[in-house]
Amino acid sequence: MVGIGRWRVAFRGLCIGCALVVPGMAAAFETVLNVTGGSDNLRGRIEEASSVLNAQDRGLDEPLELVSAARADYRTIVQILYDEGHFGPVVNIRLDGREAARIDPLATPRAVQRIEVNVEAGPVFRFGRAGIAPLAPGTELPEEFVSGHVANTGIIRDTVSDGLTGWREVGHPKAELGGQDIRARHAQALLDAEISLAPGPRLAFGDLKIEGPTAVSERAIRKIAGFPTGEIYSPDQLQRAGARLRRTGAFQAVSFQEAEDPNPDGTLDYTLSLEDMPQRHISFGAELSSREGIDLTVAWMHRNLFGNAERFRFEAALRNIGGTEDLDGRIGLRLDEPARFGPDDSAFWIAELERRNRTHYDVTRAALGYGTRRTFSDSLWAEAWAGFAYSAADDAYGTDRRFRYLLINAEAELDERDSSVSATEGYFVNAELMPFLGLGDTGSGARLFVDGRAFWTPVSRITLAGRVQLGSVVGPSASDVTPEFLFFSGGAGTVRGQPYESLGIPVGANTAGGKSFLGVSAEVRGQVTEKIQLVGFYDWGAVDDTSYISASADSHAGAGIGVRYAVGGFGPLRLDLAYPVQGDTGDGLQFYIGIGQAF
C-alpha cells in the first residue's frame, strides 16, 4: 500500500538503455479500476488521464512500458485527487499483485496479465488558514479561497495567479511567488495555505528593440505598435501593442520579450520579435444556387505595398453564371494605411465599379472615397468614408436614370461570437448609416441598415441561431433613389426558398425595391458527428413602400433543412434545401451551396 502524502519512491540508477529485457510475445492484459469515495466524475477523470489504464489503446504492451506508465500514474492520479480536494488519499497500482512503485525497472517481469488500480479518495479537505499577502489595491481573489470552503489545488493556483496579476496591473511586471506554506491536517481534514508574493519594483516601459527578418520599416513598426515608452507598465498596454501589429495582417508572428533586469532609472526594456506573412496572397470563392447560378470571386492582396505595412486589396466578382439573370460583376480596390492618424486609427482609399443585372432592375455604378477606421478593441470597430457615387439605372420607374451623390458611409461592428465562421455562443451586430446629398435633380436623404445575430447552445451539440435584418431609406420617394439603395427580399442572404430579390413593391406591371425591409431568420443546428451538422431553418421577410414596416407590408417566408461539413478554419461547407411556405413570389425546391454558415 502507498499512502499519498507519506510515500516515497527512490529511482536508483535507472538505465533503460542498459537493461537486459528478454523478448517475448505481447499478450492482452486485464485492467481494473476501483475507486472508493469521491465525486461522481472522479472515476471518469482517472480513467481518462491514466496512462496504464489506457496502455492497450496507446499500443503499450511490453512489461517495461507498463511499469513505466504505472509509476508515472502515481503523480497523475494524486494530482487529480488534489484537484478534487482529497489531500489524504491512498493509491495502489499493482501489476499481477506487485506494487508498481516497488518493481525494479532493471528486473521487470517477463509478462503482465492483470493491472489493478485501487484509489481510496479519503475525505474532502476544507481550507483551515487561507492567506495571501501582500496584495495590490483592488485585487480580486477567488471567492473560494476562504477558511471553511472546500479546498483544491486549482483554487490555490488561481489565487496565486490573481495575486500576481493584481500587482502587474498596477505596474509591477516582475511580481512573482515569494513562498508558500501548504500543510494538510489529516485528523481535521483541513488544508492550511499561506502564500507570500514578491511584487518587485514599480516600473515604466523603457526602450523597444526590434529584431527579426521583416520587410516593414522600423519607423512604421514603431508607429503602428504605439509602444508606450515612459508610461507605467501595464499588461493591457503591451497586449494592445501586439494586437495593433497583428491587425495589419503583415506579420505572421509578433512577440514581446521583457528584459531580465530593470534599468537603474526604473524602466524595463523590451525586445520585439517579428516574422512577416507572405507579402502577396490570392483567394477564391464560389457559391451556387438553383436560380442565381454560380457566383465566382477572386481577391489579390499585397500586405506591404510601400514598405509601411500598407494593405492593398483587389477584388473581382462574376455573378449569375448559368442563372436566370444576365451576367454581371464587380471590381473593387482598397488601400489601407495603418496608424495614419494614430496607433488605432488607420486611413483608407476605396474605388468600386460594378454592373448589377437583376430581375427588376439593371444598374451600373461607380464610387470613389477616402475614409478612416478606428479599432476600439478586438471585437469593436467603426469606420466612415466620404466620397462621390454615380449610378445609371433601368428599373420600374424608367430607363437610363442617372444619380449623382456626395455621401458619407459610416459603419460600426461589434462581434462577440465565439467563432466568426461557425458560432455557438455570443452575438454580432453590424450597423450602417449613409447620409447622401443628391447633386442636380437627384434626391437627398439617408439609408440605414442593421444586421443583428445571436447564438446560444442550451445543451451539448444543439445550437440555436437567430438573425434580424432591418433597413430603411428616409427622405426622397422611392422613384427618386437609385435602386441599389432600395430593398428586396428573397434568396440566400434573406429568405431561402424564395427566388433572389423576388419580393418588392408593385409599380404598374413591374416591381421596384421598397424603402424599408425587415428580415427574420431562425436556425436549429445539431452536431451529429465532429464534422457533420444538420440544420433546420425558417426565414421570413417583409418589404414596404414607406420608411418603416407597417402591418400591411407584403411578406413571404421559406423553410428547409441543411447539412454542414466542417473543413477547418474556412468554416463548414454548406448545403441548404428550401421550399417557400408563405407568399406568392416563388414555388418549388431551391438549393444553396456555399462556404460558412448562412449567418
Description:
- Helix 1 packs antiparallel against helix 2 (63-83).
- A hairpin with a 2-residue loop joins strand 22 (505-507) and strand 23 (510-512).
- The strands form 5 sheets. Strands 11-12-13-14-15-16-17-18-19-20-21-24-25-26-27-28 form a 16-stranded antiparallel barrel. A 4-stranded mixed β-sheet has the order 1-4-2-3, with helices on one face.
- Residues 1-26 have low confidence and may be disordered.
- The chain has helices spanning 42-49, 63-83, 153-169, 218-225, 235-247; strands at 30-36, 90-95, 98-99, 114-120, 126-133, 176-185, 190-198, 204-211, 251-258, 267-276, 280-289, 293-302, 311-321, 328-342, 345-357, 362-375, 380-395, 398-415, 426-438, 445-459, 462-474, 505-507, 510-512, 516-527, 532-544, 554-565, 573-582, 590-595.
- The protein is 11% helix and 47% strand.
- The protein starts with 29 loop residues before the first strand and ends with a strand.
- With 599 residues, it is mainly beta.
- It contains 5 helices and 28 strands.
Largest sheet: 16 strands, antiparallel, barrel
Mean pLDDT: 91
**Which of globular, elongated, flat, extended, rod-shaped describes the shape?**
globular
Strand content: over 45%
Structural class: mainly beta
Order of strands, main sheet, comes to: 11-12-13-14-15-16-17-18-19-20-21-24-25-26-27-28
Rg over C-alpha atoms, rounded to the nearest angstrom: 33 Å
State the total count of DSSP E strands: 28
**DSSP helical segment count:** 5
User: What is the percent of helical residues?
Assistant: 10-25%
Give me some keywords for this one.
5 helices; four-stranded mixed β-sheet; 599 residues; mainly beta; disordered N terminus
